[in-house]
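Usage

Read records sequentially. Each one opens with the input sequence:
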Amino acid sequence: MHTNIEQRACDLAVYIIENKSTVRAAAARFGISKSTVHKDITERLSKVNPSLYHQVRELLDLNKAERHIRGGLATRRKYKGK
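and closes with the structure output:
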């Protein structure tokens, strides 16, 4: 676990950008909750590193726009048996 919250926020942003990851996947990778990832990215990172914040914000907005598609595909796999 990171002791420096600002560094953790930067690390999360870099991980999300490099892996085109979701908040849920980043939370699992870092062993923290989704709400902590969201708070680190939206509140803390915007104050610490605004340019990195804008990059990760674009990706998170894209993920939000596409999440209904991913949910539908997951439901389809569930009931179709993959």
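Summary fields computed downstream for this record:
- Residues 50-80 form the longest helix (31 residues).
- The chain has a mean pLDDT of 88.
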